[in-house]
Amino acid sequence: MKKLLITSVLMVLCADALTAQGEIDEQQKVFFRNERSFALLLNSDGYGINYREAKRINYLNKRLLELDLGTLKHPKEYRVSNPYAQTAGSFIFGKLNSVLYLRGGIGYQHEIFSKADIGGIAVRYFVAGGPVLSLYKPIFYKVLYLVPNTNYYETRDEKFEETIHTPYDIYSRAPFTKGLDEIKALPGLYARGGFNFEYSKQDKIIHAIEIGSQINAFPKEIPIMASPDNKAIYFSLFVSYRLGVIVDPLHPEETNFTNLFRRKKIP
User: Fold this and answer.
1) Is the full-model pTM beyond 0.90?
2) Measuring CA to CA, how many Å separate 219 from each of 101, 133, 141, 189, 193?
């Protein structure tokens, strides 16, 4: 599925480039071309959002500063529901903790192919890395208990116990706020690298697709599931959509994210 998604994105971008080839770009160019952008990330072990600032070193190279917020998931997370409980909610059986990570890093970007025409594609590669902080919170389940001397059940909020609970004992997952007072933190390091395909038809607006790989490494395993295969090192592939603006030092009033949602004026 991931290979199909990446292949489809590349085919769409290539097709768009071919149909627009030869259309002359008469827009006024921003020389310094610093960038500010946001991205939506889809990873093979979770999802997240990213904020990035790209500072120009020279014509083809930029220095990156980025912040990430995302989730880490175990490959054995499967959502199920209790078939014997009416209106029961879905849950991930055996999950001990939900994991959120915060990352902040610096990096480098190099432009391989520049965009000459309207509708063309600029191709760059980038690398980045820095510290990562994982925050993991215990999962609580609504566990069914038979009320003595009746045919009715009540629910109690409990953490998962592998030796006690079965899928038929659980009604649903408890509210996310349950367990917030038991959050634990684990610091580590991350690194990522990939390719950026920028295809915007407006010079001051950024539309890009990125693909690549990344690694989050921690000093010990994060107990996500009640299984012996929890990991301390998470390697994953990612694809992201990036939206942003070019920072123009000569016209700072135009460096505004609200410009992303304005219609381009037709001369």
Assistant:
1) no
2) 15, 11, 29, 9, 22
